[in-house]
Design goal:
This protein is mostly helical. It contains 1 helix and no strands. It has a domain of about 40 residues. The chain is rod-shaped, with a radius of gyration of 21 Å. It starts with 5 loop residues before the first helix and ends in a 12-residue tail after the last helix.
Length: about 55
């Protein structure tokens, strides 16, 4: 195998770190919306809290 330069390794590690951070923040945002919908459905059981509220 051909040796990889330090700059290339730094870019790969930076891209991996950015992907991990973005995925974790996406999970946090998704989990908080799920928890909020669950809480709203407990407080207001007669309402439907979905993506399409106009239906």
């Amino acid at each position: 195998m051909k040796p990889v330069s330090r700059r290339t390794l730094d870019r790969i590690y930076s891209a991996l770190l950015l992907a991990v951070v973005l995925l974790s923040w996406g999970y946090v945002i998704y989990a908080s919306t799920v928890a909020a919908r669950r809480q709203l459905s407990k407080e207001y059981p007669d309402k439907i809290f979905g993506m399409n509220e106009n239906l």
